Amino acid sequence: MKVVLLPGLDGTGILFKPLTDALSKDIDTMVISYPPDLNMSYRELVEFVMGQLPKEEFILVGESFSGPIAYQIALLKPKTIKSVIFVATFLENPRRYFLNLSRLLPKNFILTMPIPDFIVRYFILGSAVDRQVINLYKQTIKKRSPSVLSFRLNEISKLSASKEPCDLRAIYIQATNDLLVPGSCVEVFKKVFKRLNVFRVRGSHFILQTNPIACAEIIENEIRFITEQST
Asked: 138, 217, 223, 231: which has the fewest C-beta neighbours closer than 10 Å?
């Protein structure tokens, strides 16, 4: 069973390292990174991901920005998809005021300014995060294009609440101390997915990075369940 990972706003997939390190070595993972210099809409990214999905059975994991992409793929239901796992994500604009404001700011105003460690630690990754994760986060900052990030924020701001139901098996991993995605965002998923299991995991919005062991356990249990059901 392959685990396909769709990244957050940076689109690089670099931040999946703590999770892939925590997963059992016999689990095959596939990170789909997004083109770093192209302004691609959600619809275009869905098509991009669909063209790279494996032919063997897989579980799709959509982190943060990629939640809407994972949802659209779940609706398309590729033949070999068995389950979808949403991580600290949304199907509608999670912070309407902030994202609308970001559209008015110059692209380089926030997206290129250096972020002090204490901001990263206490407001983004969480106070308990270790230095390795902070360095990993800063590595992604260096690789991101301000213009592409601005475009992606605009894509998020255009998300609407009206969603088509989906009968695919689904999991939502919710961070207990998420300052970026409100806890209420999970309610939309509950309405959309008939078979949704919600797991609350202690940590910040970057839950796969700050509590990878707990998240890996959820993913491994899902693989085990699906494997047992198919035998």
From this structure: 231
For the segment 175-196, the average pLDDT, to the nearest whole number, is: 94
pLDDT at 101 exceeding the cut of 50: no
Which two three-digit tokens encode residue 94? 């999670």
138-167 residue pLDDT tens: 778 777 788 898 899 889 988 987 789 999
| Residue 99: domain span | 2-229
What are the helix (H) ranges across 23-168?
A: 42-50, 67-76, 96-102, 107-111, 117-119, 131-143, 146-157
Q: Which of 207, 94, 106 lies closest to 156 in space, CA to CA? A: 94
Longest Cα separation, the chain: 55
Q: What is the mean pLDDT of the chain?
A: 88
**pTM of the predicted model, to two decimals?**
0.90
**What CATH number did the domain enclosing 92 receive?**
3.40.50.1820
Closest CA to 65 of 133, 126, 15, 118: 15
Kindly state the tokens that stand for 122: 């206490």
- Which two three-digit tokens encode residue 173? 């991993």
Query: How many folded domains does the chain comprise?
Result: 1
